[in-house]
Amino acid sequence: MNTERAPKVGVGAVVKDEHGRILLVLRKRAPEAGYWSLPGGKVDYMETIENAVIREIKEELDVEIGLDQLLCVTNHIIPSEDTHYVAPTFLAHIIAGDVQNKEPHALGDVRWFPINDMPDKITMTTAYALKHLKESDTSEKNSF
Questions:
Q1: How far apart are CA 21 and CA 26, in angstroms?
Q2: What is the dihedral of CA 12, 44, 87, 38, to 10 degrees?
Q3: How confident is the chain (144 residues) per 10-residue block, as mean pLDDT?
Q4: CA pseudo-torsion sign 11, 101, 17, 98
Q5: pTM of the model
Q6: Residue among 118, 117, 100 nearest 109 (CA)
Q7: Which InterPro entries does this one have (predicted)?
Q8: How far apart, in whole angstroms, are the C-alpha atoms of residue 93 and residue 100?
Q9: Domains of the chain and any CATH numbers
């Protein structure tokens, strides 16, 4: 029997609307239950990370997204929750549908937040992605 443990792969997306707000979901399950998170989920065997994030957000929120770019990759390691994910996060936008919570057993709420007015309790991957998003916005403004 192989008892070796390995990290899992999870994906997420910073979904922005036309007002620059970011879509977050309130997690009901570990890891980080009770925290606001980017929408996303786990990558299935033989699935690309791009297809996984599109599928997961369709399942969770009933919207189709377009991927703009890979924003960052988080080493999502929380020893106290026995959690280890490698989590690519994309920048994305909605191309069809209206946001609905299709997984109320897993998500307590779904809301849009202005980037400068995030809730206090956000997940590790959300904080890391927002840091990269703000850094990329600043570098674009400072470029020639």
A1: 16
A2: 20
A3: 81 96 97 97 98 98 98 96 96 98 97 96 97 78 46
A4: positive
A5: 0.91
A6: 100
A7: Nudix_hydrolase, NUDIX_hydrolase-like_dom_sf, NUDIX_hydrolase_CS, NUDIX_hydrolase_dom
A8: 15
A9: 19-73+83-141 (3.90.79.10)
